[in-house]
C-alpha cells in the first residue's frame, strides 16, 4: 500500500475523482477499503480528508491506518438497537467519521494523490457500500464527494463506492447445491448396497454350490 503522496503519471483532470477499492471481503466479512484522494489541477494542497460511515449502515469495526505527517481523529455515535459481536456481546457505539489532517504546512499539492485506508466489517449484505468523503484544501475550501449516480448521469462529485455483492439466497446456485447433494446420497446408497451384496457372496467356488448344499437329499426322510 502506498502511504506517501504519489505524483500522478496521467492527466490530473482524468484522476480528479476520489476512488475507493475493497480488498478481501464480501457480505458479513472484513476487509480493507482504500481511498485514493487526488489534488486536481488548479487546486491548493489537500490538507484534510474526512470519511463518514453512513448512519443507515453502521459497522461494528472501523479501524483507520495512520498516515505519516497526518493526525487521526475518530468520532463515534450511539446506536439503538445495538449490533452484536460473534459471542453475543452488544455493541452500543460505532464510528461515525474518520478524519486525517495534515500537519501545519503539510498536505499534498496538485498533481499528487494520497491513499487513506480503513479496515471495516462485518460488511452489509448489499451490492455496494458508499463512503461519503469531504476533501479540504489549504485555503479552507472543500469538496464533498457525496453524490449518487442516477441512471446514466455521471455526477460531478460521485461518492466513493465499493462493490460487495449480496449473498446468494436463490436462483441457480442453491439448485446446483441440492442437486449435488442428491447425487451424493444416491452414490452412498449404491455403495452400501454393493458392499452388502459382496458380504453375502460365499468365499471361493461357484455360487451355485450354495444351492446344491441347501437342496434336500431325497434319500433322507
UniProtKB/TrEMBL annotation:
- Where would I find the YncI copper-binding domain in this sequence? 17-164
Specify the superkingdom.
Bacteria
List where the protein spans the membrane. Answer: 175-195
Signal sequence range: 1-16
The UniProt annotation puts the region (Disordered) at: 136-158, 199-221
Q: Which UniProt keywords apply?
A: Membrane, Signal, Transmembrane, Transmembrane helix
Keyword Signal applies: yes
Protein name, as recorded: YncI copper-binding domain-containing protein
This protein's record includes keyword Transmembrane helix: yes
Q: Where is the composition biased (Polar residues)?
A: 136-151
